[in-house]
Amino acid sequence: MRGLLSKLLYFARTAWRGLAASPLTSAVAVGTIGISLVLVGAFALTLRNMEELLDRFGDDLRVTAYLTEGLPDGERSRLAELVGTVEGVERVRLVSKQEAMERFREGVGRGAALLDGLGENPLPASLEITLVPERRSPAGMAVVVEALTGLPGIDDLASGHDWVEGYLRFVALIRGLAIGLGTILVLATLLIVANTIRLAVYSRRDELEILSLVGASRSFVRTPFLLEGILQGGIGGAIALVLLFGLFRLVLPGFEFGLELVLGGATPRFFSGSEALSLVLGGASLGVIGSGAALAGGWRS
Amino acid sequence: MRDARGSGRSFFGARRPRGAAVVSGGDAAVRMFHASKSYSAGSFALRDVSLEIDRGEFVFLTGPSGAGKTTLMKLIFAAEKPSEGQIVVLGRNIARLGERAVPDLRRRVSVVFQDFKLLPRRTVEENVGLALDVVGMPRRKQRAKVFAMLKQLGLQHRRYHHPLSLSGGEQQRVAIARALVNEPQVLLADEPTGNLDPDLTLEIMDLIANAATRGTTVLVATHELGLVERYGKRTLRLEAGRIVEDSRPRSVAT
User: Fold this and answer.
1) CA A283 vs CA A29, A225, A229, A242, A245: distances in Å
2) Residues of A with CB under 8 A from a CB of B
3) Which chain A residue has its CA at the smallest distance from B137's CA?
4) Which of B103, B105, B136 is facing A3, going by the closest CB pair?
5) Cα-Cα-Cα-Cα dihedral sign, residues A210, A212, A215, A221
6) CATH 3.30.70.3040 domain residues, chain A
7) A3 neighbourhood in chain B, CB within 8 Å
8) B-side interface with A, Cβ within 8 Å?
9) Considering only CB atoms, which chain B residues are within 8 Å of A217?
10) Is A213 within 8 Å of B119 when comparing Cβ atoms?
């Protein structure tokens, strides 16, 4: 156990010494990992917020059926009951003309006084149709809308499914871009880390030869380099996290209008603790994979 | 500690690594049976060498440059494998030694080189401690052991210095300290005094010879015949890759 601890201390010392021995090369590797992860992280952050918005949409997704003007109360109730039996409908709420006007009045706030000038209430009565959770998607909505289309007493049907569909396509596009760009960046980062570690191995070949002569095992020689990769990756990840947080706090407010379009007025949220940790660990993983690739078959005793 | 090693267990009593290719070897530290080494077809660096070096024996290896002295040493510490024949070092068959078993062998077979092979950015203490780092010796114990070894070689006051600030003789003493600190069973020295003045040469040779008196098998490659005569030890003479002479001292000396 003490032997293991001594070795771990030796590995940590040697890895740190390795980073310090070639500060410029190490800084380039750390910087590359940092920049790559800022880009990947920015995409992840955007996607995360957009998907969260979709989840919230899910709960709010409703179909509104506007009723024909002058439909008698009894007909309305019957129609509401009928709609309630349609597959995919969870519940139906009848909104009278008066209630619609009240809502509108609340919605316009101070401008409500203008409404007093209206002689007749122009708003139609409607049925607010909440869907069962499985149907709370653009496709699910479309099925319910189709089933309701043409029912006598229903003048018009409104649902956000076209909009949601478009939004989903946009999310998919961003996701595709993130995956494509992320893959390229990850590969580039791996190459840079691998190259950095290869240079480190090359510049320390005398040391490696001596270690081999005094009986160092392969893992004893390789571990400090792997650790060096982990450190580079972890530091790069941490820098990316700090930069992203800075951008999120300082730059984002300047893009409020654009965000409003993308996020629909929802307040954007930063990564959670575990997500932030994943970013740093992701960097460390890039580092260890890169250095592992550099060492694979690269050094022989 | 030496007993534990002799019993075939590693430094910390762990199992011998896979591929160690242990053979029963009697009392000899090094045995070669018709061993040859060629780097290119038809050109032999070492040819049909058979020899036996007992445990605790001190042997000189002489011969002109290019005679194969370094190749023979490389075969003993498994830096090379024989092209033909068998080599058994401390009971391990070098020809069949797996890569994983090499470090274990090298913790028992230390090497000192003409060019010292010290790390310039590490202190004397760290250079010597490398041999103990690889076996995971705790820092405090390691420092005590390194200090004791440096003290034996009169270098304790230099322990925080870097190699390049030392004289050639001191650097070679550091290399010897690194080679001996792990109490090896075999010490190989390849032209250890080749870069040193004559008076330093004797100082370094005395240190190496001293290791043999404590039971370490010592093999010194040198082309300085004056040294060989002065110490009066068994001498193997190599020429063009073959052993042409194996002379033993008339009286048994330590």
Assistant:
1) 11, 16, 9, 13, 16
2) 2-7, 9-10, 21, 206-207, 209-218, 220, 301
3) A3
4) B136
5) positive
6) 62-159
7) 12, 135-138
8) 12, 77, 99-100, 102-107, 110-111, 117-119, 121, 130-131, 133-139, 142, 178, 182
9) 100, 103, 134
10) no
CA distance B135 to B112: 19
Q: Which residue from A4, A207, A301 is facing B102, i.e. has the nearest CB?
A: A301
Q: Which helix (H) or strand (E) holds B36?
A: strand B28-40
Task: List Cα–Cα distances, A12 to A19, A121, A224, in angstroms.
Answer: 11, 77, 7
Per-residue pLDDT of chain B (254 residues; tens, 9 = 90+): 333 333 433 333 334 455 555 554 457 899 999 999 998 887 889 999 999 999 999 999 999 988 999 999 999 999 999 999 999 999 999 999 998 899 999 999 999 998 899 999 899 999 999 999 988 888 889 999 999 999 988 899 999 999 999 998 899 999 999 999 999 999 999 999 887 788 788 888 888 888 888 889 999 999 888 889 989 899 999 999 999 999 987 654 44
Tokens matching residue B88? 């058994």
Q: Please tell me what DSSP assigns to residue A271.
A: P
User: What residues of A are in contact with residue B105 (Cβ under 8 Å)?
Assistant: 215
Instruction: State yes or no: pLDDT of A115 exceeds 80.
Output: no
Annotate A192-228 with three-state secondary structure: HHHHHHHHHHHHCHHHHHHHHHCCCCHHHHHHHHHHH
CATH match for A62-159 among 3.40.50.300, 3.30.360.10, 3.30.70.3040, 3.90.1150.10: 3.30.70.3040
- Token pair in block for residue A236: 């790069």
Q: Which residue has the tokens 């122009």?
A: A122
Question: Whole-angstrom Cα distance, residue B52 to residue B30?
Answer: 6
The verdict on ipTM greater than 0.90 is no
User: pTM here?
Assistant: 0.69
Out of B106, B118, B119, name the one closest to residue A215 (CB).
B106
- Residues A256 and A266: their CA atoms lie apart, in Å, by 11
Shortest CA gap A223–chain B (Å): 12
